[in-house]
Specification:
Pfam families: T-box. GO terms for molecular function: DNA-binding transcription factor activity, RNA polymerase II-specific; RNA polymerase II cis-regulatory region sequence-specific DNA binding. It comes from Chanos chanos. The chain is of the alpha+beta class. The chain is built from 15 helices and 19 strands. Strands 2, 5, 8, 9, 13, 14, 15, 16, 17, 18 and 19 form an eleven-stranded mixed sheet that branches. The protein is globular, with a radius of gyration of 23 Å. It starts with a helix and ends in a 21-residue tail after the last strand. The N terminus and C terminus are likely disordered. The structure holds a DNA duplex.
Amino acid sequence: MQSIRDLKHNLSLPSSAAMPGPPDSYHQGNIRMVLEEPELWKSFHEIGTEMIITKPGRRMFPHCKISLSGLVPYAKYILLVDMVPEDGFRYKWNKDKWEVAGKAEPQPPCRTYLHPDSPAPGSHWMKQPVSFLKLKLTNNTLDQHGHIILHSMHRYHPRFHIVQADDLYSVRWSVFQTFTFPETSFTAVTAYQNSKITKLKIDHNPFAKGFRDEGSNTKRRANRTLVDPERMAKKANSMLERGSPPDFQQSPHGALDREEVQRKEVEEVKGERYSPWGGESEREINHRLQSHSPLGPDARDAYGSEQLVPGQSTYQPYRFHEYGKSPPSSTSSSSVGSGASVCGRSVRGSFESRVPDVATVPIHEASGKLPPHEIAATHPAPQAGHQDYTGVINMSMAQSKTGVLGHHPLYATYGAEQALGQWGGQHPAQYPPPPPPPHHLPADYAAQTMHHGYHHGNVSDWSQYPLFSYSCW
DNA sequence: TCACCTCACACTTTTGAAAAGC
DNA sequence: AGCTTTTCAAAAGTGTGAGGTG
């Protein structure tokens, strides 16, 4: 196998003519990624996962945890995660289900979370599940901490990228593969909308133990009463004004028959399996999760995360329309493509996606074609319009990483100006059409996303260019 | 008025430095 | 002296619910 060093050398040649064909690193297509705790994810997914986003940043729960195999033990890899909008809509919670509430807001700056262990040899990644526990989500578009910025009431799903690279400098010249898992999609919220989700979180998140009804919760409430009688009096007053007894109101499990209420809710959560996305049944979800595996339902265990994306199309430069995990195309989708498309999800033409101002990027046709009311109460078709926009990894961070950051999480920022500026006129020369798909790629892997970052070799200039060309919408 | 967001709170787990033991 | 284990306080991560905002 050609070493990554050789690959780097080849790719560093400035001329597009020098762009090598697919290197032997395509053999890395053996990489397999499996989502850990799929049952937990599934239980959330069936109800409609919500993730809290806050100004200071909030961790995900369940958090992203994956297992990797098929890596070259001695080769170094970098693991990245980013969040991709599911569609071009904004949602609202109406009674007991999510409804489309209009077009999505312009996408905030795209950021990528780099696993703090990166870069590490394949043996390191494979020896145990890899957790992205410390990844945080925020709704603060001016966030300085590098958290992943999302819009509330919008739907996203995480995407995992694995890049064979000795260090962050090499990323741009390296092959990377992308994986997604349909069950990890979620709605970003600032406060939980679906009480079933709240309950699931409380039941499974150790930090929320205090809210469980197994004794400590009541103790907590009692303490609170003692600690701040004034507050409680105030609260009681306000509740009286609303005409409900203070101890029963508000809480999903009031003092009155709390156990029964809880039992009832548990039954609802476990048994009802209702989907806020238009009544998708468990069977349907299972079917969807399984049937999208290119290897069929039986392959889910073995190839739990392999995905289905037409290999050819993903090689189109600057766009990645087929990626659209919507409808989720497999248990996890992996795609193979050029470095010019990672955040792909566009219905618009690739040229339209390169508008110079991300804030004004029009929502795609899809959202225009399909009136919200027609979509309401149903899970919108994933292919629904996406906005394209691109981003640039903040390489100043990457640069510092190699020397200073050590084992701290690195977030790569995709600034709007950078992103669009660079797309503005450079790419044709800068990002020549990628080579044809590897002829020796096994059928299975032709469906994966394998991106090549074809960039110029001048390291001093590389911060101008994206690690991934981002089309987040 | 309403939908959404922010904040302080109580409670929990995690982290890391200091102390103790070997 | 050096290493490992234990202890404990501080920090960080939770959902709650009142109040704020547009």
